[in-house]
Design brief:
This protein has ten helices and 20 strands. The protein is an alpha+beta fold. α1 packs parallel to α6. Strands 4, 5, 6, 13, 14, 15, 16, 17 and 18 form a nine-stranded mixed beta sheet that branches. The chain has a six-stranded mixed beta sheet with strand order 8-2-1-12-20-19. The chain folds into two domains: 207 residues, 3-Layer(bba) Sandwich (FAD/NAD(P)-binding domain); 135 residues, D-Amino Acid Oxidase, subunit A, domain 2 (D-Amino Acid Oxidase, Chain A, domain 2). The relative contact order is 0.20. The C terminus is likely disordered. It is globular and about 65 Å long.
C-alpha cells in the first residue's frame, strides 16, 4: 500500500493498515504532520462542530468513542502521550437568538442519545468564573475534549513505523503509474514505487495530486490562523466555543485561540487583521487574558468541500486508487474512524455492511 500524505489522516490510515499486517509505504513531501495536522487546536468536538444527526455526525461520534483506547494503544506503541482529555466544551450564547438555537440543539441531540445540558448564566459563572458575565449561557457538552494535534499525528506515524510501515519524508509525489484504468504506483523525485493500492490523503493538496488523472475533487483550501498564550494558571477548565472563536486549554498552562477562515488560498502567512480579531474576541470572552503572555501565531490550510462532506473511499473508475480528504476542521476528530474505515474498505468490506445504513445515508463516503 502507498499512502500519499503524512498528516494525521495519512498516518492514521498507515497505522490501521499496519495493524492488519499490510506492507505500507507512506510518502510525505515535507515532514510528518508539518501542515494542517500540527496547526490544529486538537479539539474532539463531535457535538460542538456537528449538530445534525446525519451520517457525518454518526462517523464523528464513532470516532470520538475510539479515542480513549487509541490514546492508550498509541502510548504503548510509540511512547508518545497524545494528551487526550475529556474536559468538555461550552458552546456559548451571546444573544437571545443564540439561547433559543442552542436549547433546540440540546433537545434534538438528546433525542438521538447524546449528552448535552443547558447551563444558565448563573451556573456558568460558578463553573467558569473567568468567563465574561455578558455571556447568557451555554450548551455544555461533557463528552467532547481535545488532544495535542501534533503529538497525536506523530504517535500514529511512529506506531505505524513500529508495526512495519516505511516512511519517506521530503519525498514529493509528482505523478501516478497507470496500467490502463488501474493505478499501480506513484512517481517521486527519488524514483517510482509500486503498490496494489495507492491512497491519496494529501489534505488541501489532494486535488492537485489527482488532477493529472482527470479526477476532479470538489475541494478548496481554507486558511485558518491561530495563536497561543501562556498563563500562570489556566483561567478556564473547559473549551470555550462560539460562532467566531474557540479557546482551548492545554495541560501546560497554554491556551490555543482560533481560528480565522480565508477560503481559496494556500498562503500560510499570518495576518495582523486575523490575529487582532481573535485577540479581541478572546479578551471579550475571558477578560483575565489581558495578563496572559504571548507565545506564537501560525496558520494552517484545511481541505473543504462545497457540501462540507469529506471524500472517503475507492475511486469508482480507477482500480487501485483510494481517496481520503476534505475533512476541513474535523481532521483530528475524524482521523481514527477514517484510518479504520479506509483499512476496512481496502480489505474488501462494504461500507453499508460496516455501518448498517443505506448508501444514501452516507453521502460523504463517496468518490
Amino acid at each position: 500500500m502507498i499512502i500519499v500524505g503524512g498528516g494525521v489522516i495519512g498516518s492514521s490510515i498507515a497505522f490501521y493498515l499496519s495493524e492488519q499486517s499490510k506492507k505500507v509505504l507512506l510518502l510525505e513531501k515535507n515532514k510528518l504532520a508539518s501542515k494542517a495536522s500540527s496547526a490544529a487546536a486538537g479539539m474532539i468536538g463531535a457535538q460542538s462542530e456537528l449538530e445534525k444527526n446525519g451520517s457525518l455526525f454518526q462517523l464523528a461520534r464513532k470516532s470520538r468513542e475510539m479515542f480513549p483506547n487509541l490514546a492508550q494503544k498509541l502510548k504503548e506503541r510509540s511512547g508518545i502521550d497524545i494528551e487526550f482529555v475529556t474536559n468538555g466544551i461550552l458552546k456559548i450564547a451571546e444573544t437571545d437568538e443564540d439561547v433559543s438555537n442552542l436549547q433546540l440543539t440540546i433537545s434534538s441531540q438528546r433525542k438521538y442519545g447524546q449528552e448535552a445540558d443547558w447551563i444558565s448564566q448563573t451556573e456558568m459563572n460558578s463553573l467558569e468564573p473567568s468567563l465574561s458575565k455578558r455571556i447568557k449561557g451555554a450548551m455544555y457538552i461533557p463528552n467532547d475534549g481535545n488532544v495535542s494535534a501534533y503529538s497525536f499525528s506523530k504517535a500514529l506515524a511512529v506506531s505505524a513505523i513500529k508495526l512495519g510501515t516505511t516512511v519517506l519524508e521530503d519525498t514529493e509525489v509528482y505523478g501516478f503509474i497507470k496500467d490502463k484504468n488501474k493505478i499501480i504506483g506513484a512517481k517521486t523525485m527519488v524514483g517510482s514505487f509500486y503498490a496494489t493500492e495507492t491512497i491519496v490523503a494529501g489534505g488541501a493538496w489532494s486535488e492537485q495530486l489527482v488532477n493529472e488523472l482527470g479526477v476532479k475533487l470538489d475541494t478548496y483550501p481554507v486558511k485558518g490562523e491561530c495563536f497561543s498564550v501562556r498563563t500562570k494558571m489556566n483561567p478556564i477548565k473547559r473549551t470555550i466555543f462560539s460562532k467566531n472563536c474557540y479557546i482551548v486549554p492545554k495541560s501546560d498552562q497554554r491556551l490555543i485561540i482560533g481560528a480565522t477562515e480565508k477560503a481559496h488560498t494556500f498562503d500560510e502567512s499570518v495576518s495582523l487583521q486575523g490575529i487582532s480579531k481573535l485577540m479581541n474576541l478572546a479578551l471579550h470572552y475571558i477578560p483575565a487574558l489581558k495578563e496572559a503572555k504571548w507565545e506564537k501565531a501560525w496558520a494552517g490550510i484545511r481541505p473543504q468541500t462545497s457540501d462540507g462532506l469529506p471524500y472517503l473511499g475507492k475511486h469508482p473508475h480507477y482500480q487501485g486508487l483510494s481517496i481520503a480528504t476534505g475533512h476541513y476542521r474535523n481532521g483530528i476528530l475524524l482521523a481514527p474512524i477514517t484510518g479504520w474505515l479506509m483499512a476496512e474498505l481496502i480489505k474488501g468490506k462494504n461500507i453499508d455492511t460496516i455501518f448498517k445504513v443505506g448508501r444514501n445515508q452516507l453521502k460523504e463516503v463517496r468518490t
